Amino acid sequence: xxxxxxxxxxxxxxxxxxxxxxxxxxxxxxxxxxxxxxxxxxxxxxxxxxxxxxxxxxxxxxxxxxxxxxxxxxxxxxxxxxxxxxxxxxxxxxxxxxxxxxxxxxxxxxxxxxxxxxxxxxxxxxxxxxxxxxxxxxxxxxxxxxxxxxxxxxxxxxxxxxxxxxxxxxxxxxxxxxxxxxxxxxxx
Length: 188
What we know:
With 188 residues, the chain is mainly α. It has six helices and four strands, in the order H-H-H-E-H-E-E-E-H-H. The chain folds into two domains: 10-100, no CATH class; 120-184.
């Protein structure tokens, strides 16, 4: 591990530590190993670019984690691809039990033995949500159309003074206004 000539600025370390502390305390309950390692990799990258040696960065990161009661030995997964070599070296020292976790992007179809594409679960969930959204929008659009027709019928019945048609069309207008609004706010 090579030393840089400029040395490590303690102010940079304090700023990185405070930024990490704020992030960690805000999201502590939802942070995965992968997101923690990714966030720490950004600290490592910044400190190395500011002139800290790898040894100084390891010590600084370990101090930051220790102050937040994060046990680096408990981190089992990390994303190391695409990171600079010196950043990966520091991360492997800080998180010795972390192994490379790589999943294919969700948009890449895998082929099964019969040659049919198997869509990842994320793709299926997105398609279900789109179908549900389109169905709700269809219900909403139909309700607005029927509301318009019944409103026009109510206006015409007012002009021709037909109370029966006015009552029926007003009732339909009210019913389909409620249905359209419920569809709009996704209650149905």
